[in-house]
Amino acid sequence: MGHALLVNRLQQRLVLTVSIIWMPFLLASAMAAVRAPVPIDGIQILFNFLTYGAIAYIGLVYSADLSRRSLTIIVALSGVVPIFFGLFQVALGSAPSRISSTFSHPNILAFFCFLYISFLFHAQLSGYLRSFAGKSVLWGLIGAATLALLLTGTRSAYLSTYLFLLLYSAFRRPLLILPLLLLPPIVLLIPAVAERINDAISGTTPVTYDYLVSAMRGDVSDSGVLQLDSGTWRRYLWQASWPWIQQNWIFGYGLGSFKYYSLDFFPLSSENGSGAHNVYIQILFEGGMVMLISYIFIIFSIIFIQFYNKNINKFDKVYCWLLIATYSVASYSDNMLYYLSINIAIWFVIFAMCNMGDDRLTGPIKRLAYVQRG
Asked: Is residue 30 part of a domain?
């Protein structure tokens, strides 16, 4: 950014664009980091958010020299090691019940596969690789990534990926909707997938949150065995956090505070505290309405840029809108914003596609055209 401001004036527009989009959220995050109950955790989260803003800027800058074919190859190659390493573990019988491959958690691999599948599917239908061999390789990679996704056991990633494929196919290739509708009963034949789905819908108890807490404390002698599915557990967690949010709804309690204070307001929390499993609740708790509004501003700014940029073709616009939409849906039930690896990939792809322009103008030719448009 310093080089753009002091040397290459052509890139100052990109600095301004990224600053307008990300600076409110980063400033709100810095304010929340100051109030973090565990300072080192607050600093780490703040630097994660700074990384997202930086990678967004890098995506804008490098997209001037990237064709869609080049971006497709970059994304395709990025998944070869983690996806096939995870499948290799499964083939050898050394994988855990939910594979994470080279990532630290199965959810991170799952949402990497979500981005990987969605982008390569978009690239395939858009013809970014025109050779028969290239298209065949892409279909093979999509199939391998789908299998890896299913073996992660991450249900929110299942939903996000399936929702994307269904909506995108409805817009681009309606004939693909029928095989996609047949996909759920087929994947349920995989035992690991069926087990995760059954876990989500079984164990639901009709009792209220207050009754459950009382039973855990031993106040109810004849409560019997009570089990919670993951959806009900999340709902009770959000319910327990809401009175705290109402007490400090403008600025919140500081970055990393949700997990720290969950031990106080949520008796069902794990020994080390529980994350919110909801980006919006966690932002509201940790940074208040100031931080939540600035985060929502990022989402709508991307939609605005895509809508009014005449250099972006309509199919790329639809892809980015659906990617943002399904990412936002996944954020309702998962800690999406706090997965560093996947956010680096997602924000790079989104912002690169915000500035790619016409594939017929690449590298120096594209920059010359930009100068001439002046």
From this structure: yes
Domain of 173 in residue numbering reads as 68-202
Beta-strand ranges (E) seen in the chain are none
Q: Rounded to an integer, what distance in angstroms lies between the CA atom of residue 323 and that of residue 124?
A: 16
CA dihedral 276→278→281→284, nearest 10 degrees, is 100
Q: CA-based angle 91:335:196, to the nearest 5? A: 40
Shared domain for 242 and 313, answered yes or no, is yes
CB atoms within 10 A of CB 338: 17
pLDDT of residue 99: 93
Give the pLDDT score at 225: 52
Count of structural domains within the chain: 2
Please indicate, yes or no, if residue 1 is contained in any of the structural domains: no
pLDDT at 365: 37
pLDDT at position 346 is 95
Which pair of tokens denotes residue 351?
């912002």
Whether 11 and 76 map to the same domain: the answer is no
Q: What is the largest CA-CA distance in the chain?
A: 80
Our CA angle for 8, 9, 13, nearest 5°, is 120
- Residue whose pair of structure tokens reads 């895509």 in the numeric block: 306
Q: Looking at the structure, do residues 197 and 213 belong to the same domain, yes or no?
A: no
**Separation of CA 113 from chain center:** 11
Q: State the residue for tokens 């998944």.
A: 79
* Residue written as token pair 């196919």: 169
pTM of the model: 0.87
- Of 267, 256, 259, which is closest to residue 219 (Cα–Cα)? 267
- Of 329, 363, 301, residue with least CA distance to 62: 363
Q: What is the mean pLDDT of each run of 10 residues along the chain (374 residues)?
A: 78 87 96 96 96 93 86 95 95 89 93 96 94 94 95 90 94 90 83 72 62 60 59 86 94 95 86 89 96 96 85 87 94 90 94 73 42 44
